[in-house]
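re: the backbone from monday

yeah here it is again, tokenized this time
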């Protein structure tokens, strides 16, 4: 299945609402989100975070999820 998806150019993109996190990562815009929005995103992605986590901590958690996406791994190769 992965080979077929690769052939036709499909990839799993991490997104929420109208936001494509992979695209935001590629354009260096992950840091534009507020703490509240980052927490909403992490909740949507089912990533555990602490209530006292700061903006930088939350951004790192979002980036960790995005780095696992195939589209990001392909661009880094």
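seq for it, each position gets an aa:
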């Amino acid at each position: 299945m992965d080979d077929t998806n690769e052939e036709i150019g499909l990839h799993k993109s991490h997104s929420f609402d109208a936001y494509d996190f992979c695209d935001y990562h590629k354009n260096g815009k992950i840091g534009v989100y507020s703490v509240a929005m980052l927490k909403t995103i992490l909740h949507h992605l089912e990533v555990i975070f602490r209530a006292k986590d700061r903006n930088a901590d939350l951004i790192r958690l979002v980036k960790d999820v995005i780095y696992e996406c195939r589209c990001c791994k392909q661009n880094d190769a």
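Confidence is low (pLDDT under 50) at residues 1-12. Residues 55-67 form the longest helix (13 residues).
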